[in-house]
Amino acid sequence: LMWERERKEVQKRHSELDAFLDLQVDGDIFKLFGRIDRIDELSDNSLAILDFKTGTVPSVKVVKSGLNAQLALEVTMQQKGSFDQLGDFSNRQVSKLGWVKIDGLKPKIPFTSAVAPKDEDLKSPDELGVMAEKQLISLIRQYRILEQGYLSRPRPDFKFSYVGDYDHLARVREWELFEGEDDA
What we know:
Shape: globular
Radius of gyration: 19 Å
Distance between the termini: 53 Å
Number of strands: 5
Strand content: 25-35%
């Protein structure tokens, strides 16, 4: 609450917004649905898109890889006019994108940015939104190939602390027991 009170640049807050986006992919429509925790209109005419978290906040590396694309795709939706029912957001820059950690454990700034300030590839939330759209379209095209399998862990180079919905079918725990070829 103290962090919220100190944010004097916020002109208007919009919470729990349902939105959708029709993406054209090779002549077909793909519908993307989302519920955005919050969009703030800021005094410099830019927007802040925030997601409130009680659990672990994803790393910038995971967001950039596309494994946690929620916030990036919310930027894509904003860029494509999905929030225009609130006003004219389509030509506004997203200047802040990230998570607000709600745990009550430490008196600290709860905001964590989804974009690294020194990233050479992505310098802004808007660039992340453009990248997320390209990644999503590429993924949609891949899964239109009938022979394409659905992977339990598409990026094994990232370690996750959670159990995936299909890990038991892929026997992930069993394969994690092996260290190398000798164990196999």
